[in-house]
């Protein structure tokens, strides 16, 4: 299976993508997680990326394309396919991905956009908790960890993302509509696009996603 999840901040990409990874034995490539890893390691890229992420902007296309290229070439877990979460976010990124896949003799199966009204995203974003090392995601009220503020699997502390505040969310949403909206149109013209209602519960969203992918592994 080779698929892309498109959706605004808080739509549920990071909640659903690991389920696709586990169910279809593909790799989950989340560019936001990769950038946050760089931030944590305080690399030059991480330092530059943190400023951009906290301002709700986008890291340059070249950097992001190379990150994905490196994963597709070297991550053995991607041999069987992939789910992309957070990439492509601009039309040039989508065009570069097409070029990469063409070179590899691979084709996308589908592109799914998680559709949800902006007004529903504030509570999702401001209540989110993450386990930085694994990328596991919780929500203070919608899907709380078993024990207060610690990861269910490792027992390590959960944190809030520095871009998860109302002010940065507004900017991230504006960026999404301006830059990533056209990516959905790009895949519509290619006949690959499907939209699903992301305002429902995680388990209903998952059922609907799964039914799109069944038979495509
Ligand atoms: P990224 O990490 O990709 O952030 P994002 O796109 O803003 O998306 P989020 O991670 O906020 O949302 P999500 O859809 O994963 O939601 P989640 O499942 O966690 O990117 C961060 C930044 O990195 C960007 O702003 C940009 O600066 C940079 N960047 C990344 N990729 C880039 C690229 N390709 N090019 C350039 N720059 C790039 O869910 C959110 C919360 O809601 C959770 O608490 C969850 O538990 C809860 N929840 C999920 N589903 C439901 C549901 N159905 N009902 C109730 N609650 C739910
Ligand atoms: Zn995410």
TrEMBL record:
Give yes or no: UniProt keyword Protein transport. no
Chain segments carrying region LID: 127-164
Q: Which GO terms of the cellular component aspect does the record hold?
A: cytosol; mitochondrial intermembrane space
Question: EC number(s) for this protein?
Answer: 2.7.4.3
Location (main, coarse): cytoplasm
GO BP field: ADP biosynthetic process; AMP metabolic process; ATP metabolic process
Enumerate the UniProt keywords alphabetically. ATP-binding, Cytoplasm, Kinase, Mitochondrion, Nucleotide-binding, Transferase
**What is this enzyme's catalytic activity, as reactions?**
AMP + ATP = 2 ADP
Give me the residues that bind AMP, please: 31, 36, 57-59, 86-89, 93, 161, 172
Region of interest (NMPbind), ranges: 30-59
Source organism, top-level taxon: Eukaryota
Residues that hold ATP according to the record: 10-15, 128, 137-138, 200
Location within or outside the cell: Cytoplasm, Cytosol; Mitochondrion intermembrane space
Residues forming the Adenylate kinase active site lid domain are 128-163
Which Gene Ontology MF annotations are present?
AMP kinase activity; ATP binding
What this protein is reported to do is described as: Catalyzes the reversible transfer of the terminal phosphate group between ATP and AMP. Plays an important role in cellular energy homeostasis and in adenine nucleotide metabolism. Adenylate kinase activity is critical for regulation of the phosphate utilization and the AMP de novo biosynthesis pathways.
Q: Assembly and partners?
A: Monomer.
Give the domain section of the comments. Answer: Consists of three domains, a large central CORE domain and two small peripheral domains, NMPbind and LID, which undergo movements during catalysis. The LID domain closes over the site of phosphoryl transfer upon ATP binding. Assembling and dissambling the active center during each catalytic cycle provides an effective means to prevent ATP hydrolysis.
Q: Indicate the family of this protein.
A: Belongs to the adenylate kinase family. AK2 subfamily.
Name of the featured protein: Adenylate kinase
The species this protein was found in: Gymnopilus junonius (Spectacular rustgill mushroom)
Q: Tell which residues of the whole protein are contained here.
A: 42 to 258 of 259
């Amino acid at each position: 299976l080779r698929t892309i999840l498109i959706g605004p901040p808080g739509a549920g990409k990071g909640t659903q993508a690991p389920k696709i990874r586990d169910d279809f034995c593909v790799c989950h490539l989340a560019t936001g997680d990769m950038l946050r890893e760089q931030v944590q390691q305080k690399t030059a890229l991480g330092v530059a990326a943190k400023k951009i992420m906290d301002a709700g902007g986008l890291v340059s296309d070249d950097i992001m394309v190379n990150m994905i290229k490196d994963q597709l070439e070297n991550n053995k877990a991607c041999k069987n396919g992939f789910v992309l979460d957070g990439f492509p976010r601009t039309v040039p990124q989508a065009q570069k991905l097409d070029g990469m896949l063409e070179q590899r003799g691979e084709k996308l199966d589908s592109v799914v956009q998680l559709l949800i009204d902006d007004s529903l995203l504030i509570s999702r974003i401001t209540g989110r908790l993450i386990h930085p090392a694994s990328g596991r995601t919780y929500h203070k009220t919608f899907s709380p960890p078993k024990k207060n503020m610690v990861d269910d699997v490792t027992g390590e502390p959960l944190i809030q993302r520095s871009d998860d505040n109302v002010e940065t969310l507004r900017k991230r949403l504006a960026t999404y509509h301006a830059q990533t909206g056209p990516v959905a149109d790009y895949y519509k013209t290619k006949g690959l696009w499907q939209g699903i209602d992301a305002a429902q519960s995680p388990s209903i969203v998952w059922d609907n996603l799964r039914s799109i992918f069944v038979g495509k592994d």
